[in-house]
Fold:
Amino acid sequence: MRKIRIFQDDAYISLDLLDKEAQVIKIEDDIPGDNFSGMTMNTNEGLKRIIIESPDIMKNNAIEDELNDFYEAVVNDAPVTVTIEDGFRALKLAGIIQDKIKPI
Structure:
C-alpha cells in the first residue's frame, strides 16, 4: 500500500500512489433550493452537503517518462520537461515543508 491521506477542515483527500487512484470528499454549505440530490447532514454550523469525487488520474510510469525525456534531451537536443529551475524550486519547497514538520 502506498497512500497519502490529507485531512483538512472541509475535505479529506486520499491518494493511492500504487493503484493510481484519488478520492476527494468535501463538506460544503448547503444551498437552499439548489435541488442537490447528494448526501447532506446537520451540523452545529447548519446544513452541510457531502461531495465525493474520484478524479481521473493519468496511468503512466513516471520513471519511464523521466528516462524518455532525458533520452530525447541528450540524443535529439530536445528541451527537457522539467528544468533545473523547476528542480531547484521543488527542493526549496521540500526544505520548507520539512522545516514545518514537527517530530513526534
Observations:
- The longest strand covers residues 21-29.
- The chain has two helices and five strands.
- The CA atoms of residues 35 and 101 lie 42 Å apart.
